[in-house]
Amino acid sequence: MSLASLAQQLCEPHLTMHAGRIGKAQALLTELREHISHGTHEGGGNGTKQRILVNAQALDLLNTITTEARTAYTDRYGQPAPTLETCINTIGKGDHPPDWQHYFEQQYQRFITSIEATMRPKKLRRLDNIVCPSCQQATFGNERETCLYLDCYTGPDRELRHPSEWTVTCQACQATWAHKDMKWLIVALAQ
Q1: pTM surpassing 0.85?
Q2: What is the model's pLDDT at position 127?
Q3: What range defines the domain where residue 88 resides?
Q4: pLDDT for position 19
C-alpha cells in the first residue's frame, strides 16, 4: 500500500471492505480518539460530579503515535512539528528518498496495525478444563483463569480460519503451538 493511502487511512474517511461490502470508514485516528473516552459516569455519594472514563491503553497508543509521528516529521524536515494529522498528511503527500519512504511506510503500517489491534482485539476461544502439555495446568493465578486459548478466527467479521492456521497459546507459561504441534489438542478435545 502506498504511503499516501496509509496516511489517508489514518487521517481521513476512506473506503474499506467489511462483510463483503465496500463502505466508508472514518479515519483511524478519529476512531482511536473516540475509543479513548467511554463517556461519563455519575459519581457516587452526595456529589453531583460526573467522571469521565478513559481507556488508558488507547490514550497511551495515541500519545505514542503522536510522539513518533512528530519526531519523524522534525527529523525529515528539520522544522518543529505541527499537529499530528498535519504531520501525517504532509509526509504522506511528500516526495522522499527511498530510505525515508520505506521508513514512513513501515511506521504508518505499524500505526494502523496497533490501532486496529486496540480497537478490534482478536477473539480467542477459551479451552476450559484442558491441561497445558507444557506447564501441566488448566487454570492459573488467584482468579483461576483458563490457561489455554485457541486463535481460530480471522478478519473483522471473525470468520473461522482453516484448522491448519490455528494456534494455541498458554497464558500461564506463554508456550505456543501451531498446526503440526497440536495433535495433543485433538486428543484432549476428543476426551
Answers
A1: no
A2: 86
A3: 3-119
A4: 59
